[in-house]
Design brief:
Layout lengths: L6 H7 L3 E8 L20 H5 L3 H5 L1 H17 L1 H5 L8 E10 L1
Antiparallel strand pairs: 1-2
């Protein structure tokens, strides 16, 4: 993100190592990446309201994303494009943990 220093800089500042965070497919925490294998959750308004990324992209972009996702799920396109995800128990999605 533009408003945050790079994770490497943060790690260096606190003399920490950087470790990837694996997200299990059934993660119940409700952050954006938690639904990587259950995208239908993003169609649910209460789920989206609990995820801060939607407030940053704005209502028009959110509406387009939800409409496109709904169409892709309905047509089977999402499953076709993401079939390799369905076999994973956990995914590395770019989240990092700093361990000091």
């Amino acid at each position: 993100m533009a408003d945050r220093p790079p994770v490497e800089q943060l790690a260096q500042a606190i003399d920490a190592r950087i470790e990837p965070v694996l997200i299990p497919w059934d993660c119940a925490d409700g952050f954006f990446e938690a639904y990587w294998r259950r995208p239908e959750a993003y169609l649910d308004e209460p789920v989206r309201r609990a995820v801060s990324v939607w407030t940053r992209v704005g209502p028009d972009a959110e509406r387009r994303a939800v409409d496109n996702l709904r169409a892709d799920l309905s047509s089977g396109r999402w499953a076709e494009l993401n079939s390799e995800l369905l076999a994973l128990d956990a995914a590395e999605l770019g989240l990092r943990l700093l361990v000091a």
